[in-house]
Amino acid sequence: MDKNLVTIAPYVAEFSGTFMLVVCFAQWFVAQTDDAHSMVVFHYRPMAYTAYASLYMALIYTLEAVSGAHFNPAISLCTFLAGKNRFTNVLSYWAAQFSAGLVANWLCGIVNKVGNKAEFYDHNLVVSSLCEVVYCAMLCFVVLNVACSYENMGNSYYGMA
Question: pTM for the full model?
Fold first, then answer.
């Protein structure tokens, strides 16, 4: 196999996985804020979470061997802090993840012909940020204990965790 392809594969995997997750969530968010469909989406909201979790699990099983399946800058940072990743890899992963998020949101905006949907998102910024920090910490804790632990080497249940 070409050495350049092997070198770039983890970053392409991170971009692809992050892109798919952001598109999945952004499409759900656009549908949720659409007045014509808000009752339907609200009624089936648990299915949106199930779809997101199923996609995340499938991406982890598919791309873990290629890049570690971080798909989140917090995961990349915690693997570095745990000594499982080099800082140069973390910076490259961040570049792939942030660019994937921007491209995915841009694409969803074009596909759905929306302007600024932030006006519909009236949650408190402090509460939203606190929730994000707590859930990212939980996700990092799970990744470090399941996918990065020496005791779990060779097991493939990390996607379900």
Answer: 0.78
